[in-house]
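Running low. Any example?
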Amino acid sequence: MRWIQVRALLPLLCLLLSACSSLQGELRREIRAGRAVEGSIHGAYPDLDLYVFTYRDPGNFFESVDVSLVAGDPALEAALADLKRHDRVRIEGKLMDNRSAQMHVELSALEVVRKYEPTPPIPTYDYEATIPDDLRGKDSELFLVHAVHAGGSVLVVEHDDVVLPVFVRRPELTRDLARNDLVRLHFEIRSRPETPVHLQLQDIEAPVEVVESVMALHGQPASIEGPLVLFPESPQVRFNVFAVLQALPGDHQRQFTLVNFEDPEAFEQIRGKLQAAWDAADPDTIVSGRNKLISTGVRIRATGTFNQIDPGQANAQIVLEGPDAVEILTQ
């Protein structure tokens, strides 16, 4: 199966990481020269004043750099708050001098090139977590890893439904983490900056404990039961993507996208079966899940093989042999 064959692509992934460093250098040069750069919004969280811009190589989808955006004035702050994931924008600004390996740009201009309108539409999402209040009085907690970059120097985690940056002094503690790992962090809430809220690891011997490694699942038999998830087609993916939602300890959730790499016809049949179940569901049972839709009225069981070939993989996958590998449990 291709999830095994992809192991042969690991040297290519290393080359892509090098290319990402070159792309970051290119982006720095463009910004320093005062030129506008175009990209897309990866995430926008107005309540936390957290905005992430993706600058992508137009000739290579897998080569991209994520940049934190900071408003330069109240008008830009309002413009940022109106952005949504996948919106296409053009920015100008200056590089901020900070101690983080994460690039920050203070905006001087922001132009919306194209708004992203998903079909079906994703309603406005109301966050349930209250940060930093939910973490006050705690010195350790379970988190889901959202991103790891720069050899562990950049760490972003999820708590409940909120994404939080973590200030890392010792990248050797975090460089082997993977997106979607469930971890326990021993942390403190940083006093600066006040927004967005940043955490930092405690200065103890082992402030990071891996509760469940998603990379360790790779190649193992999979049988996950949970609500059906839909990622509407986007500028990156030209068809609806379905997933199954897994409940994790600490009120966390992880989705596994459902795929078949070897047989396009079987993959189309799988998507058709899931689309039919989605379309038959009561619309009142479909809720927003931040950047996805969740059907609380349709539960499925997906049986196949876990596929996690790269620590930065957006979602873990379950490789299915065909439509019979998905069972519609409720509808």
